[in-house]
């Protein structure tokens, strides 16, 4: 079974979006370099960011998101982001009635059930859990193995927190990856058990 990783790009003060769910300059690092990150021709990063991010993206088998992210992105129009094979959506509501049943999206009630379903689908590949409320719930439930964050030099002051509404203390190991890219610092921490 693959590891479960909580991930997002985050402001220096710990926010993944502003109060209006807008990313502001958080994703500027994805278009500020000269190395194509994917085939779109849009994502261009520094060499350092490419080496780190591309390798990670290639490990991901399934992404777990909350219904809020699913709705904000319009379900990525049925195409999982970054070439991921499946998306598991944590929700208490049924999938949209017009949703294409062939789209590789799975609607699951509850974080434990969502991670279990994602692990089934991912096999030995990484299960990526979006930071925010869903990520915070998974961390609180002891389901996260690793925390990855791309820290961007901006202060939001308020907004959507990286760890959602998690209020308990959780210890992480010292960072085992610290990579400086252009307008971003890539960090990886293992969760202390």
TrEMBL record:
GO terms for molecular function: 5-amino-6-(5-phosphoribosylamino)uracil reductase activity. InterPro entries: DHFR-like_dom_sf, RibDG_C, Riboflavin_Biosynth_HTPR. It comes from the Bacteria. GO terms for biological process: riboflavin biosynthetic process. SUPFAM superfamilies: Dihydrofolate reductase-like. Residues 3-169 form the Bacterial bifunctional deaminase-reductase C-terminal domain. It holds the Pfam family RibD_C. This is Dihydrofolate reductase. It comes from Microbacterium saccharophilum.
């Amino acid at each position: 079974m693959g590891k479960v990783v909580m991930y997002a790009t985050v402001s220096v003060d710990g926010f993944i979006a502003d109060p209006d769910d807008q990313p502001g300059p958080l994703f500027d690092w994805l278009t500020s370099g000269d190395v194509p990150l994917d085939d779109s021709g849009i994502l261009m990063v520094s060499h350092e960011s490419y080496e780190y991010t591309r390798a990670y993206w290639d490990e991901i088998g399934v992404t777990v998101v909350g219904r809020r992210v699913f709705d904000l992105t319009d379900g990525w129009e049925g195409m999982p982001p970054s070439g991921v094979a499946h998306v598991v959506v944590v929700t208490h509501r049924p999938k949209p009635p017009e949703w294409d049943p062939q789209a590789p999206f799975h609607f699951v009630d509850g974080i434990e059930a969502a991670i279990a379903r994602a692990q089934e689908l991912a096999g030995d590949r990484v299960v990526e859990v979006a930071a925010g409320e869903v990520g915070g719930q998974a961390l609180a439930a002891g389901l996260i193995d690793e925390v990855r964050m791309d820290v961007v030099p901006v202060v939001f002051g308020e907004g959507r927190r990286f760890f959602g509404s998690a209020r308990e203390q959780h210890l992480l190991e010292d960072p085992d990856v610290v990579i400086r890219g252009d307008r971003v610092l890539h960090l990886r921490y293992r969760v202390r058990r």
